[in-house]
Write the structure tokens for this entry.
Amino acid sequence: MGNSMVDWIKRDLKHNWHPYTQMKDCGEFPPILIEKARGVKLFDNKGNFYYDTISSWWCNVHGHNHPRIKKAIKIQLDRLEHVLFAGFTHKGVILLAEKLVSIAPKNLTRVFFSDNGSTAVETALKMSFQYWKNIGKKKKTKFVSFEDGYHGDTVGAMSVGGVDPFNKIFSPLVFSSFKAASPYCYRCPEGKEKTTCNIECIKSLEAILKAGHRGIAAVILEPMIMAAGGMIIYPAEYLKKAAALAKKYNVHLILDEVATGFGRTGKMFASEHARVEPDFMCLSKGLTAGYLPMGATLTTEKVYQAFYADYGKGKTFFHGHTFTANPIAASAALASLAVFKEENTLRKIKTLMPIFHKGLAKLKNLSIVGDVRCIGMIGAVELVKNKQTRKPFGLNERIGLKIYKEGLKRNIILRPLGNVIYLYLPLCIKEYELKFILAQTSCSLQSAGI
């Protein structure tokens, strides 16, 4: 078979099954063949480029082909590619654990490595569940999550998810969890507006904890922004109140920072906006800057000590993954954290955030834009059919797909989440690139055939 783009795509569709994709659509709208990438740009085999405005599913923090991270990976390849992490260890993961503890909330002193975001969440859920068993509080088995929350696609992570398109069909497989109303400001569950809000939406979580705390192990929440649920950005005060309630009712607080960690919200971790200290923090995606899969679950010394006992006492945490603490992934993570320091990444994006937020705000004037929300280098535009009633577009109208196609014509990726178009920008982006993306986003929204 030849090497033309058509041939390669035919070969792709002959065997590959793409995620979150109705494969029948690929006949009309086939996947784009990407051959190389550099900085914030992806290049296909025809020479076209696309700004990677969603950081290749939110993980590419420092841009593609970063020389510092590539060099670290190449050096590690000549030393050690993998070793089991039961009974063995290696310098890279020791240094990485030390580094993570040094930058995380101060109460988090222990690191359990895994493979990705879902496994980091599964680890936290199982640790919390077993913790209560280990200390004799066996009734604390339930979890509280949120209606628009998303924590991954493995069974435990789905059980604490609330996004129907991802989870509904699998409902017979999952365990039940309490669902609190989401702090969704644009569609406030309490019917409030931002000018009159006093975080009344916390009442839903409080009622659940007050009534059932004796049987609840933990609350799990994405700090500051519920990502896959629609890029729902909420006030830091809500996070503070949620943390206080967890403490008051003696349940663990699990913060899922898989999508929000490593500078995305303008701080290293989103929990810093509210200055809260969780019992568990789940990390992945930006941990290795998108170069290799890796997950990490951080927890407290108190939790760790509840598992520390003589073998045979039933307190061992029997959980693990083949590629736990992979040396090459650890080298990428260490290099990525070094880049934050060497390039003053968090300081640099502070000068870009006002430009980004101001540019996004202008989009609210468009007829199909109901809400614009942003935090750090994340921005979202919620599309509506009627601005006054906030009526959303129907699924069959596929407004997101139309805008996605328009974006590609203009060299940007505008991958939709239902009726939400979002930007999850690499932190290495330059001002001229940012302004181009904002301008082309505006054009794409206006030219989507509405």
In short: The chain has two domains: 20-51+344-446, 70-342. Residues 1 and 7 are 7 Å apart (CA to CA). The chain is about 35% helix and 15% strand.
